[in-house]
Design brief:
two-stranded antiparallel ribbon; mainly alpha; 52% helix; 3 domains; Cytochrome Bc1 Complex, Chain D, domain 2; single chain
């Protein structure tokens, strides 16, 4: 906050407190010889004989207001509330967060520290760790992958055996969680012959996974595919898990298998991004999430709740 804004905020706060104090003093004072039992009225009369009197507030009530004002001044001096003034307590929301996080990390380390550095498939043998990983997944991953981890358009299903990056090994899953992934499907309309080329390659790509397509268009698209698309997806369309280039023959589609969705991806490219979660979760929590994710597609290999 700049000095100018800080002074402006301080001015507004002081003005409001002073205004409240003045208003309290002015409305509660005894005027002249009227005394506490003044018969002065507001002029409001109801039903002919019910009159509203203008009397000061009770002394105890007024004192509560004064105590409130004094408390607010002390609070603003102790905690930050006057512009850029840090307060005599030195309290900050960032410090409060860091302290709470350190306390939570200590509890987690005590409960799950034995899993530090352990492969996630081994962690998945411990139901308590998988259960905690599921809660972490719900808090940090379900927004994109869904509460059931089955994904949505543009977000992969984590419960099947189809993997865009790698083959679903424990190390690859953990790598994805820790460091994220960045898809890089470039727009290819100009490279494959404009709208005609996009139409032909789309038909060929559909044919690779058994989707009914015009044979003539698919045949023409095969040559265009071989010249441009095969560099990433392979000559047979099986993909390249190292590059994150998906298999086009397995019937699993991240953005949809209809003609419009495939042609859109070819024409405009795709840029899906899985953010790195190590800065958010830390290494141990990432392993616990990884154990949960690994367990989703390896149900038969997860030991029952009584195992250790």
């Amino acid at each position: 906050m700049t000095t100018g804004w800080s002074l402006f905020v301080i001015f507004l706060v002081v003005l409001n407190i002073a205004g409240c104090a003045w208003l309290l003093w002015w409305t509660s004072k005894v005027r002249g010889n009227e005394g506490r039992n003044t018969s002065e009225t507001t002029g409001h009369v109801w039903d002919g004989d019910i009159t509203e009197y203008n009397k000061p507030l009770p002394k105890w009530w007024i004192n509560l207001f004064w105590i409130t004002i004094v408390f607010s001044i002390g609070y603003l001096l102790w905690y930050p509330g006057l512009g850029s003034f840090a307060g005599y307590a030195g309290w900050t929301s960032a410090g409060e967060h860091d302290a709470a996080k350190a306390e939570a990390d200590a509890r987690i380390a005590e409960a799950f520290g034995r899993f530090e550095g352990m492969p996630i498939d081994e962690i998945a043998r411990h139901p308590d760790a998988v259960s905690f990983g599921a809660r972490l997944f719900a808090n940090h991953c379900a927004l994109c992958h869904g509460s059931d981890a089955r994904g949505a358009r543009g977000f992969p299903n984590l419960t099947d055996d189809s993997w865009q990056w790698g083959t679903g090994t424990p190390d690859e899953i953990l790598q994805t969680i820790l460091h994220g992934r960045q898809a890089a499907m470039p727009p290819l309309a100009a490279a494959i012959g404009g709208d005609v080329g996009v139409t032909e390659v789309t038909a060929y790509v559909q044919s690779l996974s058994g989707i009914k397509a015009d044979p003539a268009l698919a045949a023409a698209g095969k040559a265009r595919y071989a010249g441009v698309c095969a560099a990433c997806h392979g000559p047979d369309g099986k993909g390249n898990p190292v590059l994150g280039a998906p298999d086009l023959t397995d019937g699993v589609w991240l953005y949809g298998s209809d003609f419009a969705s495939i042609s859109e991806g070819i024409r405009n490219g795709r840029a899906g991004m899985m953010p790195a979660h190590e800065p958010i979760l830390g290494e141990l929590r990432s392993r616990l999430v990884g154990a949960y994710v690994w367990s989703l597609s390896h149900d038969g290999q997860v030991v029952s709740s009584g195992a250790q």
